[in-house]
Design brief:
By secondary structure, this protein is an alpha/beta fold. The chain is 55% helix and 17% strand. Strands 3, 4, 5, 6, 7, 8 and 9 form a seven-stranded mixed beta sheet that branches.
Length: 345
């Protein structure tokens, strides 16, 4: 079908349509950003004035409650000016106004996401990370909450992978976020003494919970996934798929401490997956070796010269991170250097 001799399915028309729709989306996005910045400026100003008046005049909680009611009478149906939200404005201003790192980021994300970060995160650099990542990757409020619950910040700082040197830039950080340093397998019922077979079978029986521990972008392809090379069979413990990365994730389970030779075996699996299984549009396969324990120094040396994307993590049958693990977070200066990656890329 055509209109004035122009085919509505022609390449020229489709390109023209895409150009216009792309421009509309761009303007809509810029308009939303502008509105958000105006609202954040307003909330910031209200928080500042509440804080100043409290200090100067000794006003109590009843003043904010009355102010909230008066605003809603003046602007019927207006949202965002309930008592709780107005106290959040004051708290937001109080905690961010003298913070040289966070104060410039006030207008970068929406108010509801700021409140999630303010409530769930206590440290400045942790808050900075989630603000930057939310802006960069367009996380919704629900996704942001899920990322915080998955401890993506800690994984970003502690995760032992070589993704920075082995993966394309467009998926590098997403892959780093996707791999944890410690997997909590407290949902499976195993004694401390168990075999790799028992561990694998327990995971398969609880595959939904296992995938939730990995994250919402993961799906299960199979266990003991068969590869054939030169007439010989090889089996990957678990093969997953990450739809955001569009990459296969090969998982090897080890019930003891990490050994350097595990890296070589994983490299073999990844090479075979890339050559025989990977589809043309997919990203390179990624390997995750999950062990009961590891020496961080040995892992660092093992991954140093590898050209295949591999991460090494540990697993725990307890729902709590060990204190020693919590103490592994790097110094503030080193965290700042890692966060520079999010700012620059």
């Amino acid at each position: 079908m055509s209109l004035n001799n122009i085919s509505l399915t022609s390449v020229e028309y489709l390109n023209f349509r895409d150009e216009i729709t792309k421009r509309i989306r761009s303007v809509q996005y810029e308009a939303l950003k502008a509105v958000n910045k105006e609202m954040m400026t307003l909330y910031w100003e209200i928080g500042r004035r509440i804080t100043e008046q409290q200090k100067a005049l000794g006003w109590g909680k009843s003043v904010v409650e009355t102010l909230s009611q008066d605003i809603q009478k003046e602007f019927p149906g207006i949202r965002g000016f309930g008592v709780s939200n107005m106290w959040d404005m004051a708290r937001f201003y109080t905690e961010y106004q003298s913070n040289k790192i966070l104060q410039p980021l006030v207008g970068e994300i929406s108010w509801s996401k700021h409140i999630v970060i303010l409530t769930k995160c206590k440290e400045t650099q942790q808050r900075q990370f989630y603000i930057l990542a939310t802006k960069k990757y367009g996380w919704t409020k629900d996704v942001l909450i899920h990322k915080i619950e998955l401890k993506i910040y800690e994984s970003f700082l502690l995760g032992q992978t070589n993704f920075n040197t082995t993966l394309p830039e467009n998926i590098r950080n997403q892959a780093i976020f996707a791999v944890k340093d410690e997997y909590m397998l407290d949902f499976i019922e195993l004694s401390e003494e168990h075999s790799e077979y028992e561990l694998e079978q327990a995971i398969i029986k609880n595959i939904r919970a296992f995938l939730m521990e990995f994250g919402t972008d993961f799906s299960f392809i199979g266990n003991q996934f068969r590869l054939e090379v030169d007439g010989k069979e090889y089996f990957i413990d678990l093969l997953l798929y990450n739809r955001r990365l569009q990459a296969m994730i090969a998982v090897e389970l080890k019930i003891g401490e990490f050994k350097p030779e595990y890296k070589g075996k994983m490299e073999f699996y990844l090479n075979v997956l890339n050559e025989t299984i990977k589809l043309p549009h997919e990203s390179p396969a990624i390997g995750i070796i999950i062990c009961k324990s590891k020496s961080r120094t040995i892992v660092e040396y093992a991954l140093k010269t590898s050209t295949m994307p591999i991460g090494v993590a540990t697993y725990s049958l307890s729902p709590e991170l060990p204190d020693a693990y919590k103490e592994l977070l790097p110094a503030s200066e080193d965290i700042a250097k890692k966060l520079e990656v999010l700012i620059k890329e």
